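User: ABC-2 type transport system ATP-binding protein. Structure?
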Amino acid sequence: MSEPILSIRGLTKTYKNGPRALDSVDLDIRPGEIFALLGPNGAGKTTLIGAVCGLVRPTGGTITAFGQDLSRDWRKARARIGLVPQELATDMFETVWRAIAYSQGLFGRPYDPARLEEILRSLSLWDKKDAQIRALSGGMKRRVLIAKALAHEPELLFLDEPTAGVDVELRKDMWQQIAALKERGVTIILTTHYIEEAEEMADRVGIIRGGRILMVDEKRAMMERLGTTEAVITLAAPLAAIPPALAGFPVEIGADGMQLIYRGGNGQGGGRAQVAQLTQALTRADIAYTSLDIHDSSLEDIFVGLLGEKEAA
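Assistant: Predicted structure:
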């Protein structure tokens, strides 16, 4: 396996007279992957990004990017990192073209109009190149942020809530842009409130809460390990107790006795196979049913469930 493009060890950030925003975070990011960092508001996502991008000074720990210790050679490494922040931080009276050209030169890149045109066209901003940023819609302003981050051709790109406040159609369009960046070899770290965004695009997922990383895993492996299948079987006649023929299945009877509720397996098909066995067992036991509703857990179900478990603990 190749060396991580970004390696974080023991990263801590404690604000004076305030909370510990990051608590001994360890994290490795692989070259070329899309990594989704999920967590509730205040979990530490933006602080973590700020620490890597030089916007937040850590209290402790180390950050190594491209094999370089950021505390010793920050400027050289930072030139290879792009950031799309949550908030629009640019001169609203500047034109789109000038704002992006400025970002291109900020990290030592020579002025390259052809590259700027390519970026603007890829983000459907070319016809807005001479418009002042203040005149753009919210979605277009978000695209300008992405264009600014891409102007110096970063190898590692942070997207902090990139589709917050944009409509569903534009969100899906941005997903395509992010997938295209990955195809070009850009490594992407994404924070998002839209968990379907992570489910759609991410190779790996990390969950952060209270400044601590709760879990990091391959998206598919996480869903296989923590996902479940839930099936609700509506019966033709009520049951007072679980029949012996169903004793080996993880089922319970609904409050009115008219439903059997199954929870088991995983989110990648194992549970569905067992539900099929369950319906066969019902038929053999002459227990009639009128409907079957089956649902595999999503990444959002896993996320919410995991946070709930940590809260209870």
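DSSP finds ten helices and 14 strands in the chain. The mean pLDDT is 85.
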